[in-house]
Amino acid sequence: MPRNIFLATRQIISSETPLLQVKTLDLFVSTSYYCFLLETRGEGLMHSHRKQVELKNHFCLDALITQNTKLARRIWEITTAQVRVLKTLSREFKLSVALGDLILLDRKWYVTHAGLLRLAQRRHCAGIRVQQVREFCDPAANRWVFKATLYKRPGAPGFVGFGDADPSNVSSLVQGAELRIAETRAVNRALRKAYGIGICSVEELGAFNASSAPSRSNEPSTSFPPQNGSGNGQPRLKDKLCLLIRQYNLDSTLVKAYAAEFCGTETLRGASRELVEAFITKLEQEAREDRDRLVCKLNSFSRPVEVAS
Length: 309
Description:
There is one protein chain. The protein is built from nine helices and five strands. The radius of gyration is 31 Å and the shape is globular. 52% of the residues lie in helices and 9% in strands. Helix 6 (237-248) packs parallel to helix 8 (273-289). The protein has helices at 3-16, 22-75, 80-93, 113-122, 178-195, 237-248, 252-263, 273-289, 291-299, and strands at 102-105, 108-111, 127-132, 144-151, 159-165. It is mainly α. A hairpin with a 7-residue loop joins strand 4 (144-151) and strand 5 (159-165). The protein has three domains: 1-75, no CATH class; 79-204, Double Stranded RNA Binding Domain (2-Layer Sandwich), CATH 3.30.160.20; 209-309, no CATH class. Mean pLDDT is 78; it is low at 208-223, 227-234 and 305-309. 24% of the residues are buried.
């Protein structure tokens, strides 16, 4: 506090209240001046702090959008429209491609269960209540229905979502886990409603149909036998293999080479449906039992890179 301001203020206050002791008077003057500073400059200081926080969040958001765009272009073949949607999702919900919050399937963006949970944590979700809808469940047929209620704040109205699962609407790779899938789907729908996410979650999808093959660039693009379609409603062989590669994070090029050797053909198109089915079964079994060992086996199919001398 400047000396001249202190003395002038002290003189004014002492003339109005002559009974105050010296120490009390000095403390009162200092407190008064501090309150004056808060009233005159405090608002400006708080505004400056808010601006710094806003700038920091803005830079972090720009970095996330850039990272998502670069990574998505490296993983998938995406169009300008898909990039625009990705930037909007990144800006509004801070979803990360690197963390697996978003995935591109059949040229459409889908949010994942992990991404929704991270969003709920950032938004300080108060809680989620999950209940089994018993009148619609049939354990003998593996048919389950759940109701999830999300509360954004304690005492606030909840957002309700329902999820169902049975062998007819889940992938063959996860059959037997219909109860857990139904619960996850209910929670996902409640989360999407609560936070205004218009895109579907990947866990809500059923078995892939003929037009919904994943569009990731690191999944096999080699043609499969022409008789591997799903005319009877069963998932196609290509879809099964794509799901396996994504589930266990395998290299699609090495998987193709392994498949060709297993089937004894130059390409998978020349293999019979029975051979391809046998290979997919063997690949799934090896990945489930020891993924690291499978990766080592796949690496043996990699072609050595020649270095120019």
